Amino acid sequence: MLYELRIYSVHAGKMEAMNARFANHTIGIFKRLGMKVYDFWVDQEGHSKLYYIMEYNDMDERNRQWDVFGQDPEWLEVKQKSEADGPIVEQVEKIFMQRAGYFQR
What is the annotated signal peptide range for this record (predicted)? Predict the structure, then answer.
């Protein structure tokens, strides 16, 4: 399995919009497209950051899923409407991981 940690740095004052977009739209789009969210976190130290991990079989699957997501009509509409007052996300950091063989969950 391949895991992708995605860290979103959110523009000042846009965290509520970011959380609403994920809660009301993005997670549902992920599910509809067969994208698996492994876990999700909000920052507890006052930083405008959101963290989540996606799970894939391999990098090819990951790339295919994000290509489909990026062209999805519902996603494009949601993104456009949610950014009517300006961009929400300042930066996305992506870290690719594989579970250590000695750890069993």
Answer: none
Residue 35 is classified by DSSP as -
**pLDDT tens over the chain, length 105 residues:** 999 999 999 999 999 999 999 999 999 999 999 999 999 999 999 899 999 999 999 999 999 999 999 999 999 999 999 999 999 999 999 999 998 888 877
The amino acid occupying position 104 is: Q
Read off φ and ψ for residue 100, nearest 5 degrees: -65, 135
pTM, to two decimals:
0.90
**Which amino acid is residue 9, in one-letter code?**
S
Per CATH, which fold does 2-97 belong to? Alpha-Beta Plaits (3.30.70)
Q: Please count the other Cβ atoms lying within 10 Å of the Cβ belonging to residue 39.
A: 11
Using DSSP, state whether 37 is helix, strand or coil: strand
Give yes or no for a contact between 82 and 88, defined as CB atoms under 8 angstroms apart: yes
